[in-house]
Write a sequence for this structure.
């Protein structure tokens, strides 16, 4: 398993978990958990693949749907144990944003070869799942919060694309992009960077 | 005309009617009726076809747009006669959800052969039109209501896929899926099942 | 540069400016400006190309992304000088609606040859960017305002398609559609036509 696949799975599973936590906050039933987890988990990647003109990843490999479903079920049976579901949602969303954003930039670069498209694809892939989650749950979008959000995924994508074009090996370039994005978003969450 | 086409037309026309009823509640002009009816009528199927990678149905056959337009006009001239437009909207939405959800599962199975994708496509096709309608009209999404909604379309899709793979003829499998989905959603509406 | 390309660039740049003005109203940082400007600028055309089954325009030509970025930066450094950002947003949106709506009809007709699809594509291309902008910024959709909106883009598309099929040269047909759409929407804004 290469490092890109790792970011892909991490992003999808964690975004699915944030969708399930959102369902928990809205006191939906288990089907609501499955639905919101799946839409959040696969939303960004679906738009990415459509725009890139490649087959949608989960239509090719339904296993991704099962990952979302299992994650949703896990959250369904444990979320009531948490003290602050929204706090956890924000932190999982931060890791997912960093991972899935870099994976989006990776796939965008792979398919088009254009650094600009790669960076835009990273932002789109990283943010769309969360946007759909918030719109569907009727909550204010995480994008509109005061502290830094989009900047983190943009920086991660830029670092990945720049180091990758400079010849850095995939695990290092992907790791650097992920670390930078996560560092920025974590600082925003922990210290209110804005 | 086979039974799948019947479900397709039923779903599109009724979803269009719910969009028009939503426009009526918002006191839009006739163009607003046409717009909201068309988006609601063709929204779910459009996303389904894009994700499946097949030509979008109404681009191939513009007649579907005319069905939405005629439905919108019909509602425009009669909706003021109704006592409760929202009640009617919910019931038409229920039949449309059942019909279009099963048709989505049918098309998903036809194109990909995967039962998982078929069930997901059923849910997507059945729910997206209503989601777009509610987001555009600025109303709380029907998905977030307390009583059962997504479960109905999921059950209908599962029944259709299971009976279809078991060898049941199309009219029977489609009819069974439709009946189950409508039964569950009707119970939710009539008796508040949740 | 033919007249269709002019409408395309005008629509994208002005929609991007409205997205940036919306970011300014929400007091977002410069990255928020870039994001909202880009989504608003390219949103309608992206959906149009996906539905028509042609390559997405900005994936083919990343220059469009740069146009949105430059526009966003320009608004970022000047928007605080304005007395009423929302008023300007509405007027830029009017010109963008007229330009991009006619370009959408032009491309729809070019690709499918169907007048109905062309008119629908004009409406979709003209309105979707603004819808995404308002949904993301959490503001009431411009579509739901009392004064005429969708009617303007519909009329512009109809005029373009009719005059174009009647054999009028592209600059004249496109100019006529643009002028009619802008006239109607301007009247709505200036005199409250509804």
């Amino acid at each position: 398993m290469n490092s890109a696949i790792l970011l892909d799975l991490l992003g999808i599973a964690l975004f699915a978990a944030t969708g399930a936590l959102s369902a928990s906050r809205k006191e939906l039933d288990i089907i609501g958990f499955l639905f919101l987890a799946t839409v959040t988990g696969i939303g960004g990647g679906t738009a990415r693949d459509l725009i890139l003109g490649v087959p949608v990843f989960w239509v090719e490999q339904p296993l991704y749907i099962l990952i979302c479903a299992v994650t949703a079920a896990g959250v369904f049976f444990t979320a009531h144990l948490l003290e602050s579901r929204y706090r956890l949602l924000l932190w999982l969303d931060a890791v997912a944003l960093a991972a899935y954003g870099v994976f989006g930039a990776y796939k965008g670069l792979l398919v088009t070869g254009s650094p600009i498209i790669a960076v835009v694809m990273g932002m789109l892939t990283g943010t769309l799942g969360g946007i759909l989650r918030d719109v569907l749950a009727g909550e204010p979008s995480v994008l509109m919060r005061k502290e830094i959000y989009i900047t983190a995924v943009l920086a991660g994508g830029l670092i990945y694309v720049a180091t990758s074009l400079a010849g850095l090996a995939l695990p290092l370039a992907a790791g650097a992009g992920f670390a930078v994005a996560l560092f920025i978003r974590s600082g925003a969450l922990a210290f209110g960077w804005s």
Remarks:
- The radius of gyration of chain C is 16 Å.
- Chain C has a mean pLDDT of 93.
- The first helix of chain C runs from residue 3 to 25.
